[in-house]
Specification:
Elements (H helix, E strand, L loop, with lengths): L5 H29 L5 H16 L3 H13 L2 H17 L3 H8 L1 H15 L22 H20 L3 H24 L5 H42 L4
Helix pairs in contact: 1-6, 1-9, 3-8, 4-5, 4-7, 6-7, 6-9, 7-8, 7-9
Length: 237
């Protein structure tokens, strides 16, 4: 790919990473739903955790779960990501703008593909949201919260060496997806294996977009070196 435009390198790396990860995500989902959950005690544990959470329902916890689920939902995450993209574009930091802009589209595409190819019904409990019974695996809220919150915290932590910034950023990157995952199970929307599958999609999304951005940056550096070398060897008129 020597000499390719950085945008073309980014597009190819992003596409190749998405295809490779999607295959892995579907295979793992199929293994979990068709093999692992056929083991009696595994399925009982998967269902039992949901039953235990439902048994602890209370008005205050239900309200809190609705808020946390909202923080892991599309409108909030899209607004947050959009704001970061606009700020980065104004500052002409195109790598950050592109990185954040592609987090949710890649996550959504990987999530939808896995969802459609790995059918599973939602937990057999009273659900607190009116969504279709199918579509339990994987958890889209968990995947999106990891992709966006962990992605933004990764940017923040890489921008400064100060521990007083890095430590809170890492704490948020870990805590938010966990809270979102627990809220989705509490609300009866997903099993534990579903949120684990969502975590896989979220982490895979980060890996894909980071890979594509770094590949594009490498192509840009190589192009700059080629231009510099051309100026050096160019004969003086």
């Amino acid at each position: 790919m020597a000499g390719w435009p950085p945008a073309a390198v980014f597009a190819l790396a992003l596409s190749a990473g998405f295809v490779a990860f999607s295959v892995v995500s579907v295979l793992i989902g199929t293994l979990v739903t068709r093999v692992v959950l056929d083991v009696g005690w595994v399925r009982q544990t998967d269902d039992g955790i949901i039953d235990a959470l439902v048994a602890e329902r209370a008005p205050a916890l239900t309200d809190a779960s609705a808020v946390v689920s909202g923080l892991g939902g599309g409108p909030v995450l899209a607004s947050l990501a959009g704001l970061i993209v606009v700020v980065a574009a104004v500052r002409r930091n195109w790598t950050i703008a592109v990185f954040v802009a592609f987090l949710l589209p890649i996550e959504t595409a990987a999530y939808r593909l896995t969802l459609n190819l790995v059918p599973r019904s939602r937990p057999g409990v009273a659900r607190l949201e009116d969504l279709p019974l199918g579509g339990s695996y994987p958890s889209g809220h968990t995947a999106a919260s990891i992709a966006v919150y962990a992605g933004l915290m990764l940017l923040l932590a890489s921008a400064t060496p100060h521990r007083r910034v890095v430590v809170p950023a890492v704490a948020v990157a870990i805590a938010m997806p966990i809270l979102v995952a627990v809220s989705r199970m509490y609300r009866g929307m997903h099993h534990p294996f579903d949120v684990a599958g969502g975590a896989l999609v979220g982490i895979g999304t980060l890996a894909i977009v980071v890979f594509a951005c770094r590949a594009a940056e490498a192509a840009a550096r190589q192009r700059q070196r080629r231009r510099a070398d051309a100026r050096i060897v160019r004969p003086t008129p």
